[in-house]
Amino acid sequence: MGYSEFHENVNSISEKTKNLVDDRKDILIVSNSSCDGIISASLLIKAIWKLGGKGTARFLSRLDEEILTDLKKEDHDFYFFTDIGSGLSELFNKLFSKNWIVLDHKKISLNEIAIDDNNAILNPWKHDIDGDREITSGGISYLLAKNLDKRFLDLSPLAIVSALGEYQDVGEKRSLVGLNNEILEDSKKDGLIQTDIDLLLSFNEFLPIHESIASTYVPYLYGLTSKSEKCLDLLRKTNITLKKDGRFKTICDINQEEKFLILETIKSHLSSQIDSNINNLENILIGYTYVLPSEEHGSHLYDARRFSELLNSSALSNKTGLGMSICLGDRSSSLEEAEKDAQEFNKSSQLLISKILKEKWRIFDRGLCLFIDAEGIVEPDYIGHLSRLLGSHYQFMNKVIIIKTAIDDNYSKYFFSSLLKGAIDVQQMTKELSES
Predict the structure, then answer these.
(1) What span, in angstroms and rounded, lies between the C-alpha atoms of 324 and 328?
(2) How far apart, in Å, are the Cα atoms of 163 and each of 89, 172, 284?
(3) N or C: which end of the chain has fewer CB within 10 A?
(4) Domain at 3-193: CATH architecture
């Protein structure tokens, strides 16, 4: 099992998809309400439409038998499930017979792989490829579209956006690895994405340096994120000339020595805030940038990481349709609305993190594991995003994070996030902490 078998799987699914399009079958794409889900559905629907097929998309945050039964009543000819649906093969077979396909990068069970007699699951884990690091559902949809028609190579930047949205920049200097890197080469070859190594601060190509630092949420810079004046005060203590010709400089205006000084200044500030030395900030704040030169300089779409943040905020604000319209090419009122929503979303995230940090009783630190009780302040669909933000906070970095929030009066939801998987018994730790 490996890459060649995975690509054979892509070929097989693409042939099936082409037949559906040629036969004018009515296709429903059901996708997850996430950045990756928006991109995955957008890539599929764009390919289907360009080839003359019939397709619509629907975004959901969960699937169960009741929801799937309602979808069946709509009487579509075929169903694609993207970034959602892993583990539901038996239910899909029961309701949709053989008229379904799942495209997903999340890990699936050996049993589900074993019962996939119809080759209806396109998932890297089937072929011993790490779907947490090497490819997203958006990347899978791109490879499928590319296989349908080489004209769809121009869709490759969206697959890179989805990889960054899933924090799959896990290589050296936050580079992309495996299948993601193969997709990146498609983008670079046609000049659709340009890469460089620089400080990874938000909007560093056009915002003043202090505002760029304040706009950086991943990593979460304690005491600096969202605090522009504090960042400016900090920079004034350095020997860097902050203005040129009457305007504030951007990161692009300063030399490497000055960039290093900014990094050391941020590191010193964070160390003082958490009373601990910080030694690896450069591994997070220096790395590969990915820009889309065809997009407007300074917009959320110019930098692929900011693009992913925009789509993530659309998903978590229940505006997946808005995110999809941008992926399909809308650059007018939709983009303006989404950018405003992203700004408000970031403000809300900052307030929420501040509340958690202030209410110390919510945090149980057990060394390697951190348990956060977010009941009453965090909606269930939001805790994945919150966990990633907290995981990039230096107080909690290199810890297993478990966040708990209430679904209703009887049930709670736990979200587990860490690069240290396997280091602890998560189920046992969750049980102990929930009883404490």
Answers:
(1) 6
(2) 25, 15, 16
(3) C
(4) Alpha-Beta Complex (3.90)
**Tens of pLDDT, residue by residue, the chain (436 residues):** 689 999 999 999 999 999 999 999 999 999 999 999 999 999 999 999 999 999 999 999 889 999 999 999 999 999 999 999 888 999 999 999 999 999 999 999 999 998 888 899 999 999 999 999 999 999 999 999 999 999 999 999 999 999 999 999 999 999 999 999 999 999 999 899 999 999 999 888 889 999 999 988 888 888 898 899 999 999 999 989 999 999 999 998 999 999 999 999 999 998 887 666 666 778 888 999 999 999 998 899 999 999 999 999 999 999 999 999 999 999 988 899 999 999 898 888 888 888 888 888 998 888 788 888 988 888 888 888 888 888 777 677 777 888 888 777 666 666 666 544 444 555 555 555 555 5
Both tokens assigned to 275: 């009373």
* Tally of CA atoms within 13 A in the half-sphere of 285 that contains its CB: 28
Hey, what are 108's tokens? 């699936």
- Picking from 417, 347, 337, 405, the residue whose alpha carbon sits closest to that of residue 375 is 405
Return the beta strands (E) in 232-351 as ranges: 243-244, 247-248, 286-291
| Residue corresponding to tokens 């205006």 | 253
- Domain ranges within the chain, ordered by starting residue: 3-193, 202-281, 359-435
Within 10 angstroms of residue 60's Cβ, the number of other Cβ atoms is: 18
Contact 67/91 with Cβ under 8 angstroms? no
- Phi/psi region, residue 292 (left: phi>0; alpha: psi -120 to 50; beta: rest), is beta
Q: Omega into 219 within 30° of 0, i.e. cis? A: yes
pTM of the complete model? 0.91
